[in-house]
């Protein structure tokens, strides 16, 4: 790795990029020669040209294939670039990222693809929004419509979210059945991330079938969903209500609430089964106080069940590099599984990676989210117990349903129950969790919790 930039070069880069990257103090001489500025501009231009060959419109016409040893080198370069970014060694960061761009492709093997997106996320850290170079890095940014379309394709192709949703729904159904004598056929679910509402049609259908075939009364299902904006909640409400209207013997209501709103506005009918759904939610909180407030509020609701869904490998520390590597391992597994499910030339796969996964990687790394999440030195299991919850053993029906889902969604990868055979599900933590893995790499886990019995 090249030496750290001297004082004059740092000042030059500050003018070209952003002052947060330099260690110069205010009041020092800010005179920079036109020749130095031109030289730095040229260096950055070469980086952007190399990037454009990967992310430009013509990228799909230049596949590059490498031997495994060369991909190992590519990963090594990515780690060098991340290290340079972490210590503000801009010269090394630019040189290494340029080399990565020149050696990677979005239509080659999974390693090259994931390294390209991670390199691009690192590059965006060099060019904050106010920089005059930021516009050149904007080609990967997806519109909301592109992102939604890519998410739908991702949801359909891989069992990642479907595993989480169907397994959680099975536990919710069983919680309702356990309280059938007292709940009067009423259940209320509080969803801390309703997002597009993809989890709930299957639950709506299940309760409709239950009311039609096994009970003599209509089942009342209410979902209170937190969302990022009013429009998203409106669309989710319309979509779910439209679906529920076609389901017999079911009374359905959806109430959307903006994320961050008070819990006091949630009205739950007496004796109804109350379930709190925390899908990938706690890991997004940016302070320990937010976690404390959230779990204290959940506890005060006295829910019948709390469903916790976690993305694996997301245990934060205060150090950038360990977080970076954990995210790299996680997304490498995702890209590898996509590679097995969709052909290399698939436009669908390209859209998923560019407009959904690429954007998530950029948000987590390139725009600083990796540092915003507070250091969490306890497992979520310890955290939940510390707030008065005890784990519930996951049901055998949930595990069986998850295995059936994999057989339907990914038959080509289900070659056995052992490691390195594609997707697999298994119980762990003495039956208190069910995890989804890809080639023995855990991707997502689900656990269920209840208030501790005193």
Question: How does this model look, in words?
Answer:
The chain has two domains: 7-140 and 318-371, no CATH class; 154-316 and 373-451, 3-Layer(aba) Sandwich (Rossmann fold), CATH 3.40.50.150. 50% of the residues lie in helices and 14% in strands. It has 16 helices and nine strands. It starts with 6 loop residues before the first helix and ends with a strand. Mean pLDDT is 82; it is low at 1-34 and 414-420. β1, α9 (200-213) and β2 form a beta-alpha-beta unit. Strands 1, 2, 3, 4, 5, 6, 7, 8 and 9 form a nine-stranded mixed sheet that branches. The chain is an alpha/beta fold and 454 residues long. α2 runs parallel beside α4. It has helices at 7-16, 34-55, 68-86, 90-103, 110-126, 144-157, 160-178, 180-183, 200-213, 230-245, 288-300, 320-341, 347-366, 369-372, 380-386, 396-409, and strands at residues 186-191, 219-227, 250-258, 273-279, 305-311, 389-392, 423-428, 433-438, 441-451. The protein is elongated.
Q: How would you classify the helix and strand content by structural class?
A: alpha/beta
Number of domains: 2
Name of the CATH architecture of the largest domain? 3-Layer(aba) Sandwich
What integer is the average pLDDT? 82
H/E topology pattern: HHHHHHHHEHEHEEHEHHHHEHEEE
CATH class of the largest domain: Alpha Beta
Query: How big is the Rg?
Result: 25 Å
Report the principal-axis shape.
Answer: elongated
Separation, N- and C-terminal Cα atoms = 59 Å
Number of strands: 9
Low-pLDDT segments, ≥5 res: 1-34, 414-420
Q: So what's the oligomer here? A: single chain
Helix content: 40-55%
Largest sheet: 9 strands, mixed
Percentage of residues in strands: 5-15%
Number of helices: 16
């Amino acid at each position: 790795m090249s030496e750290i930039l001297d004082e004059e070069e740092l000042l030059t880069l500050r003018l070209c990029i952003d002052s947060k990257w330099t260690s110069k103090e205010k009041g020092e001489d800010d005179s920079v020669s036109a020749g130095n500025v031109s030289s730095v501009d040229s260096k950055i231009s070469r980086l952007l040209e190399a990037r454009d060959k990967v992310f430009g419109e013509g990228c799909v016409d230049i596949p590059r294939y490498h031997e495994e040893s060369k991909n190992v080198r590519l990963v090594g370069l990515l780690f060098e670039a991340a290290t340079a970014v972490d210590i503000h060694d801009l010269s090394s960061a630019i040189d290494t990222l340029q080399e990565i761009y020149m050696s990677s492709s979005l239509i080659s093997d999974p390693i090259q693809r994931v390294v390209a997106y991670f390199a691009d996320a690192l590059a965006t850290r060099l060019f904050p929004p106010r920089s005059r170079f930021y516009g050149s890095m904007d080609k990967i940014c997806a519109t909301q419509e592109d992102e939604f379309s890519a998410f739908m394709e991702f949801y359909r192709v891989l069992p990642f979210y479907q595993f989480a949703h169907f397994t959680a729904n099975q536990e919710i159904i069983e919680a309702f059945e356990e309280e059938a004598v007292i709940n009067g056929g009423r259940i209320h679910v509080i969803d801390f991330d309703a997002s597009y509402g993809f989890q709930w049609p299957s639950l709506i259908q299940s309760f409709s079938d239950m009311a039609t075939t096994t009970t003599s009364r209509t089942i009342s299902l209410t979902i209170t969903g937190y969302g990022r904006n009013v429009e998203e909640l409106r669309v989710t409400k319309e979509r779910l209500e439209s679906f529920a209207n076609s389901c017999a013997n079911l009374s359905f209501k959806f109430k959307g609430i903006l994320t961050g709103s008070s819990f006091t506005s949630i009205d739950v009918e007496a004796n109804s089964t109350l379930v709190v759904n925390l899908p990938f939610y706690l890991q997004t909180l940016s302070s320990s106080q937010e976690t404390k407030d959230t779990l204290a509020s959940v506890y005060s609701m006295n829910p019948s069940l709390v469903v916790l869904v976690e993305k694996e490998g997301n245990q934060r520390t205060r150090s950038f590099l360990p977080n970076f590597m954990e995210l790299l391992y996680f997304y490498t597994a995702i890209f590898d599984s996509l590679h097995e499910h969709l052909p290399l030339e698939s436009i669908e796969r390209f859209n998923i990676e560019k407009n959904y996964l690429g954007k998530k990687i950029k948000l987590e790394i390139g725009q600083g989210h990796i540092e915003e999440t507070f250091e969490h030195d306890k497992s979520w299991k310890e955290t939940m117990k510390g707030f008065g919850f005890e784990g519930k053993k996951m049901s055998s029906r949930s595990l069986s349903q998850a295995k059936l889902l994999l057989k339907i969604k990914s038959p080509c990868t289900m070659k056995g129950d052992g490691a390195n055979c594609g997707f697999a599900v298994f119980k762990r933590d003495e039956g208190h969790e069910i995890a989804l893995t890809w080639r023995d790499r855990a991707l997502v886990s689900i656990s269920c919790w209840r208030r501790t019995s005193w």
